[in-house]
Amino acid sequence: MKIELRNISHSLAEQPILANISITVESGQCLLITGRSGSGKSLLFSIICDITRPQQGTVLIDDIAMPAMTALQYARFRRDLGVIFQVSALISNLTLEENLLLPLNRHHSRLSHDEKLQKVHGICEEFGLTQYLDQRTDRLSSGLASLAGLARALLMEPKALIWDAPMAQVDRHWCRHELALLKHLKEKGTTLILCSNRQELIVSLADQQLQLGLPEELASGGAHAAQAQKCQ
Amino acid sequence: MINYGFLPFSAYVVSDFLVFHRHRSISLEILLRQIRFTGVEALGLVMLIALLIGALIIVQGYPLLSSIGQVKWIYAILISTIVRDLGPFIVCFVVLARSGTAITTELGNMVVRKEIDALIAMGVSPISYLVAPRVLGMVASLILLMSYFVACGIFGGYLVSNAFASIPVSTFFVKLMAQLHWLDMVIMLAKVAFSGLMISLIASYHGLTVKSAITEVPQRNIKAVGRGLIALCIIHVLFTLLYFALMSDW
């Protein structure tokens, strides 16, 4: 999935946070978005996921602007984009199994219930979550919930994965596992967009890096607001 | 979370009912949970209130009416209070206080915990998945609770009226049914159905308009209860006026 940001600008409470950001992530490439806290990484994340519409500019998916997509194209975009939030964002009054079944019920209604359960149990085994399948997700620890959020995104075998703060909530063992998983996804040709401050861990994966500046820097016009660079 | 007004929001939710069958695989569970929470788990509370009110009407009314030799009016009073006016208002008020606040709190917390964002990102419409089943569940639950309230209220009235004068069950119900007009039932159902619709729409709207802070949730809850109460009063007054207008034409 090719993702292109074209002249994206957005302000919050009349303070410009993102100014004129343009970057293209070709299919199978990895973009690392970095910047200090408050620089707008999560805002840009939510714009790319189409949770927030940008005040100016457009996001294009496979060269089609989001507002111009047909209902079918948009449903495909939703199915093919895996999203992992900074917080686990699991539906708290559902069990882990019900949480994982939700996207399958939405996008794979033709699969039988047993086939869906098989997929859910398979991914839970991979992430060591099998024993928590019947637990409500608000009773999971933050580390386990973070893994469950990752499992939910990967369950749909996305063509692109966008991840806000990867490796932020898990222990060293799962951190290594997540890094290996990202490498595997990249090899498979999945487009990756990672918003992170821990660039030392994932910079080796990145084809491009987008460095966001702080809003004060934007206002003063001093430093570069957003710098895109190709990684070696 | 949502940045449009209450009317467009309501129109969107109501239009979503028409396509409920399309997303029933993900919404049916929420609908059943809502009916269980609002319609079934509140039965005990509603039964207690209904029995007490039914009994209270007889305790207060029977001695007064018998002192002026007009005991026959006790049935009309029972119907007017339990079925048509006080009963529907009390049931709706209980549901507003109990389930309306629960909906606002739950949806508000879901916004804060980014669960709504996650639903959108999965391509699941929060209106179809969270709001429409809650609204349908609330309307169905209120009709269920109201039927229960009427049965318990009349039964409470019967039990207490036996303390004043021993009346056979059949006589009590025959006299009661003679006073009951079909329009009483229609107005009662219309009141609770419209109230259920408004309570759930107002509660859901206020829950989903929480922006990002957990401190907004109780503030939105207070607003939802206040506006819900105003809506209840307006709906009940309008339907009571409609009832009298229709009855005078008869």
In brief:
Chain B: InterPro entries: Permease_MalE. With 232 residues, chain A is of the alpha/beta class.
The average pLDDT score of chain B comes to 90
The CATH architecture of the domain at 3-92 and 159-230 in chain A can be given as 3-Layer(aba) Sandwich
Number of helices of chain B: 10
In terms of per-residue confidence, which ranges of chain B show pLDDT below 50 for 5 or more consecutive residues? none
Largest sheet of chain A: 6 strands, mixed
The multimeric state of the shown protein is: heterodimer
What string gives the helices and strands of chain A in order?
EEEHEEHEHHHEHEHEHE
Beta-strand share of residues of chain B: under 5%
User: What's the total helix number of chain A?
Assistant: 8
Low-pLDDT parts of chain A are: none
Helix content class of chain A? 25-40%
- Structural class of the secondary structure composition of chain B? mainly alpha
E-strand count of chain B: 0
CATH class type of the domain at 3-92 and 159-230 in chain A: Alpha Beta
Q: How many DSSP-defined strands of chain A?
A: 10
Structural summary, described in words:
- The complex is a heterodimer of chains A (232) and B (250).
- Chain A is an alpha/beta fold.
- Chain A has a domain at 3-92 and 159-230: P-loop containing nucleotide triphosphate hydrolases (Rossmann fold, 3-Layer(aba) Sandwich), CATH 3.40.50.300.
- Chain A has helices at 41-48, 71-80, 96-107, 113-126, 142-155, 172-188, 199-202, 215-220; strands at 3-12, 15-25, 30-35, 56-61, 64-65, 81-84, 160-164, 191-195, 208-212, 226-230.
- Chain A is globular, with a radius of gyration of 18 Å.
- The mean pLDDT of chain A is 87.
- With 250 residues, chain B is mainly α.
- Chain B has one domain.
- Chain B contains ten helices and no strands.
- The radius of gyration of chain B is 21 Å and the shape is elongated.
- In chain B, 41% of the residues are buried.
- The chains are: A alpha/beta (232), B mainly alpha (250).
